[in-house]
Structures are given as structure tokens and as C-alpha cells.
Amino acid sequence: MIYYKTEEEIELMRNSSQLVSKTLAEVAKHIQEGIPTLDLDTLAETFIRDHGAEPGFKGYHGFPYSLCISVNDAVVHGFPSRQPLQAGDIVSVDCGVKWNGYYGDSAYTFAVGDIRPEHQQLLQITKESLYKGIEQAVAGKQIGDISAAVQQHTEKLTWLWSSAQISGTRFRAQFARKPRSTQLRQSWQRLAAQKRSRHCH
After folding, report:
1. If 0-12 CB within 10 Å is exposed, 13-18 middle and 19+ buried, where does residue 2 land?
2. In degrees, to the nearest 5, what angle opens at C-alpha 94 toward C-alphas 54 and 16?
3. Per residue in 74-109, pLDDT tens?
4. Least reliable range by pLDDT among 8-12, 65-69, 189-193
5. Is the pLDDT of residue 33 over 70?
6. Torsion of CA 49, 51, 107, 141, to 10 degrees
7. What is the Cα–Cα distance from 191 to 33, expressed in whole angstroms?
8. Do 104 and 13 form a contact (C-beta atoms < 8 A)?
9. Which of 67, 114, 65 is nearest to 89 (CA)?
């Protein structure tokens, strides 16, 4: 069922999304060789709360962090850690905020110094695919038109398609539906416990 948003709801969603953009811009200032991604997570949470909002991911079905940070071949929804970034890394930072009851959610992939040509190509083609999808987000089109445009463009990266089953996310007043919530929560809690155990040794 499609729920049509009011102008007021759209404006609240826009405000939350703009704060996500500002948070990512703040995080970007600190992405450099040697910084642990856990420090980026702390920085983002402070920035979000200082602006009167809440981290959208923290506590969601037990997820313990404010950001999802995926370095290099970690595909999606990675955990921040004490492992420092290295020159040549590419790091995807996924940020969500909840502000006035509405969520904003966006991710950006950053390069740490000079990166390999194939990684630069990955960043370029996937950025282009975003705009290919946006071109299809108009009245009269279907959601499948958006995803098809993205897929067709990213298929230029033939070595990328081991990740082809990963699908997108959405944002709204209710962050996401409930399916698999128990399994998801247990997985996150198990991974968080493993990380805490490693940090204690």
C-alpha cells in the first residue's frame, strides 16, 4: 500500500536528510590514515545529538553504533572498530538520524589518500548510477525503473556482481518493517559481543 506524504511530512523528512548530509560532511573532515573508524562513530553521534536529533541506527534491533562503516571489501553495514584506516582504503560511511519523528538515511564512500584505479572506477560508476536512478524517479515511473537503471549502469563493473543480491533501503517515520528482526538483532548482538571480547584482550 502506498502512503502519500503531506507537504509537512516531506519537509520533516528533508530536514532529517539534510542533517545526515551535514553529519557525513563533518565525518569527512576526519577521514585520514591512522584514525580508527570507532572514533568516526563517536564524532558522528556527538554531532547528531548536538543538533537535537538522535542517531537513527543506534539501538535499532540491538545495533550498537551510530554509523555503519564498511572498509574495502566489507560490502555493507559494517561495524566501526579500533582498526585504523590505512592509505589506499575506501570506506563507506552509512548514516541515519531521527529528528522530529522522521528518519534520514544516506551513505557515501570516501577514499583514504590515493587509491587503486579499479577502486576509483568503482566510486565513479556507482556515483553515476545514483544519478541514473534519480532520472527515473519521476511521476509515471515505477520503483523497478529506478533499480533497473542503477543495475544497468553498474553492470559495467563486471567484477562487482558477487554483491548483486544486496538491495537498497528506504527511510520513513517507521524506520523499517519487522521481518527477520529477531534474527537481525541476534546477529548484531553476537557481533558486538565478539568485538567487545577482542577489545578486552
Report:
1. exposed
2. 40
3. 877 899 999 999 999 999 999 999 999 999 999 999
4. 189-193
5. yes
6. 130
7. 25
8. yes
9. 114
Phi, psi of 65 (to 5 degrees): -125, 170
Q: Could you give the CA distance from residue 13 to residue 5 in angstroms, rounded to a whole number?
A: 10
Compute the distance between CA of residue 172 and CA of residue 5 in angstroms, rounded to an integer: 10
Separation CA 148–CA 146 (nearest Å): 5
The phi, psi pair for 149, rounded to 5°, reads -65, -40
3-state secondary structure the chain: CCCCCCHHHHHHHHHHHHHHHHHHHHHHCCCCCCCEHHHHHHHHHHHHHHCCCEECCCCHHHCCCCEEEEECCCCCCCCCCCCECCCCCEEEEEEEEEECCEEEEEEEEEECCCCCHHHHHHHHHHHHHHHHHHHCCCCCCCHHHHHHHHHHHHCCCHHHHHHCCCCCCCCCCCCCCCCCHHHHHHHHHHHHHHHHHHHHC
Name the amino acid, one letter, at 35. I
Measured CA to CA, the distance from residue 102 to residue 9 in angstroms comes to 8
The single-letter code of the amino acid at 44 is A
